[in-house]
Amino acid sequence: MAIWNGRVSIALEKFDYLRTAILIRNVNTLEFTLFEEETHRFNTNEYRWEVNKRGNFEGFDKTNNQHKFTWQPHGAQFTIKYKVPASAIRFQIRRPPVLDFEETMAQIGFENDWVTIK
Q: Do the Cβ atoms of 60 and 71 come closer than 8 Å?
């Protein structure tokens, strides 16, 4: 959390406020959920830490025992858990058709001299 808080402090030196955009995606169905949260520092004294069976550290809010953080030291990944608000934007995209490579290259007028192999 010290690294997170340090990076937030650096950003706040340049900007008055920060927002974090969270995108949840299902790559199989191409369904997405998007929302923003205010980005802020966390008080380390408000959380307790446990090691899970995978060797990751999990941070729990001391007041309500809710799981808030996971740190995977072997992958150097720090995850903050957010509740998805009712105001989150939910959308789905339709997979576009596969383009024919040769036809597309002809349509854009590709010339071999656009690329130089060194």
A: no
Residues 60, 68: Cα–Cα separation, whole Å: 5
User: Beta strand 77-80 with 89-92: parallel, antiparallel or unpaired?
Assistant: unpaired
Task: Write down the pTM of the prediction.
Answer: 0.70
CA distance 105 to 75: 40
Rounded-to-integer distance, Cα 80 and Cα 59, Å:
9
What pLDDT digit, counting tens, does each position of 10-52 carry?
999 999 999 999 999 999 999 999 999 999 999 999 999 999 9
In angstroms, the CA 50 to CA 57 distance is 6
